[in-house]
Specification:
By secondary structure, the protein is of the alpha/beta class. It has helices spanning 17-28, 34-42, 60-71, 94-104, 121-129, 146-151, and strands at residues 10-16, 46-56, 75-80, 82-83, 89-90, 110-114, 134-139, 154-157. The relative contact order is 0.21.
Amino acid sequence: MPKEKYLNQRIGVFIDVQNMYHSAKNLFNKNVNFGRILREATAGRQLIRAVAYVVKSGTREEEKFFSVIADQGFELKIKDLQIFPGGMKKADWDVGLTVDAIKLADRLDSIVLVTGDGDFIPLVLYLKENKGCRVELMAFSRTTSSKLIENVDQFTDLGKEEKFLL
């Protein structure tokens, strides 16, 4: 069902920036147009919160990148890149995004997740079954869990249209 049918909805948009950034780079060698994603996700509905989850690795370019995302209407949540003895690196916002979505769910009618990570399936099911939220997903189908797509109310493939890439 088109989003226009839901104009009175209060929505929250939660973006897994690392997941989207790396998917766009690997698939298309391009950047993600996060501002366009936000406009498409809201589709005239009442935006309550737009949160972008980013990982800070200490490079100069990322400060500009973070600033651009913030200027497009997102609240940034920033976590430092973890580097473990032996050189393994970890950059994971799954729990933080999940907790934020659950905390805000009572004030939202629809939640838009922008990620391809199948780890969010339990969140999707919880939001739909326990909170009564409509859950929409925006991601690149080629790098998105098929089970995640199956469990959401609506899926938008960001790879089908150039407007989502820069």
